[in-house]
Design goal:
alpha+beta, Immunoglobulin-like, 2 domains, four-stranded mixed sheet, disordered N terminus
Length: 406
Amino acid sequence: MKKYLLIFALFGFLARTSDAHNGEDHGGDDMNMPPTPCSACDHGNGMMSMRADLNAYWADVQGAPFEDDGVVRKYYIQADEVIWDFTPLGYNAVTGKAFEDYQRMYVKRDPPFLGSKYIKCIYREYTDASFTTLKERCEDEKYLGLLGPVIRAEVGDTIKIKFSNACRIPTSMHPHGVFYNKDSEGAPYADGTRGRDKRDDAVPPGGQWTYTWLVPERAGPASMDGSTAMWMYHSHADEVIDILAGLTGFMVITAKGLANPDATPIDVDKELFFNFQIFSETMSPYLPDNVEKFKTVDDPDLEDPDFIESNEIHSINGYLWANGPIVKIKKGSRVRWNIMSMDIHTPHWHGNTFVTDGMRMDIFGLSYAEMKVVDMVPDNVGVWLYHCHVPDHFLAGMITKYEVVE
């Protein structure tokens, strides 16, 4: 990108110089002298070269047209209702002690609060289109928590998702980054379409749909990325409440020729995925059901500020205060962290640094629905904090840990 910015600046300078040669009075007779044939030729060649570079820049922005490599990546994903516990360990795993008084409102069923369990609707992967056998996550993937399955492809592939909705609300799958037709967008709005092109927008309870997403070059990594580009997917039937219900996941696109057979990048030893998100449970479509199931008083005041605050769940992958599985990475290994947020957060790693956007850092900021990829080669062995640095988020439990081992 720096190269292109330099080209733009030089192009503007040459254009101003050209104006001078074309007869503008700049205070001296010499400025009005016509260029010699040789200098005019050099000037013309320079301009042509600049234009060629500019065209190359926009060609990079556009990306090459989709070339089907014949590979179809198939997924069987269902929106399932589950009862999710944000603190399954039952204590503060950051301190190793019981929750303090101010922390209890988020996790304990002290009247009038609901506690740490809620009905959620989340994406889960199955082994086939019968949706009878859940595809179990291996041990080192269980830290993903509430997140849907990681969808992978290489540039040139086609992604086909057989989707089933087992939740009581309409749901969909809307991807970022990849190419899709109107029947695979997964978002209802007045777009001039009808019939089949509308059936993907909001799959009703008990319904199914097949989403087809193509992976052209513009869905893959650009010049400042590494070997992969990361995108999110989420339900867009009623976007805000769907995301609050739990319907989010990651998708990774690997550059052409840089993927293993399973579409993981050949140069990365371990990929990790984290979603920093505040679940405002008072805005969840399941609020009436959660109140009925988990209430600790007969008629809780849903407008009470303390009750509302107790249902603001500041989670990392659906866990508070390091209650989820702790990821382990090896010293000296190539680790790629994929991070997204549905709010404003500042993820910070203790003990090690990373590189993103050409800068070495150990913290950065995320805005709404922002995605960030950072690369780390850890050199500091130990158990380290990994948390949001926004003060009230930190105090509300948006903290976990990671471990670097020899």
